[in-house]
Amino acid sequence: MTAPRARSVTDRPGTGPAGTLTAVGADAIGLVLARPARMLGFEPFFMELIGGIEETLSSDDRSLLLHVVPDHHAEIAAYRRWGQGDLVDAVVLVDLVVDDPRLAVLGELGIPTVVVGGPERSLPGVAHVWIDNAQAMRDAVAYLVGLGHRTVGRVSGPAALAHTRSRTEAFLDECARRGARGAVVEADYGQESGTRATRALLGRNDPPSAVVYDNDVMAVAGLGVANELGLGVPSDVSLLAAVRDEPRRARHGRPGRGRRARPPGVGAADHVDRSPAAPRRARQHGTARACGERRSDARVTTRPLTTCGDASGVVG
Question: Where are the alpha helices (H) located in 132-184, listed in sequence order?
Fold first, then answer.
């Protein structure tokens, strides 16, 4: 990853046509990630997100200003520094929570915002790259129940995240609709939490015959737990990772096949107006207008661990 850089700002940011954001003076887009820095190397989604944003911005000699902080309080403080110093033209916002306070702060500061993966198709006042997390869960449950599974477990991400709640509601609703029993254990996307959550599910008196994970890091941890317990995959238990994109799974021992989706950051950076007329339009318009984009349809992709009659794969 190239080193992010920020330049001086000569004009305030604004919006261009069709809800795009105008990059006016700093030639930098900001991204703040509220998570331990050590997690970035293990969470493929964010590496793909950063790579996609930089890939798009670099074509116009613009850059990504990346900041890693421990929590949302520090994230909001970073936005206030950026806004007061005019350090960025716009920000990319990820991991929305219910009643997210960051949206109001960014609106107060007048910083145009692109939300990646909000819970609803449109969000007022911001540009939005929408990911249908609920459909991914419905497809995962339908696929597993169709293969004969009647008890399905799920290892989720943090429950406070809006997209996690969307996934959990869809997972439980689809299980009930199809006559299956669903059980959810919360984790934090990391390997250790994935291990603990899988042990909790498989250690039950009536353990699930299939487990759905919210990312492939936890799914690989679950594979390790199955091996520890002497369970064959997929002969005894099937594992499925429902991920937000199709990152480089070969790093985690899960080589994939088929078409690879474009990095999610490309969709986010596409909302930044990089045309020569952007500065003029920025002075004519006020704040960002809402703009929705559906990232991709959910789909089930089986992997080499899959055998006929079992479910081990990826929903992307």
Answer: 133-146, 162-177
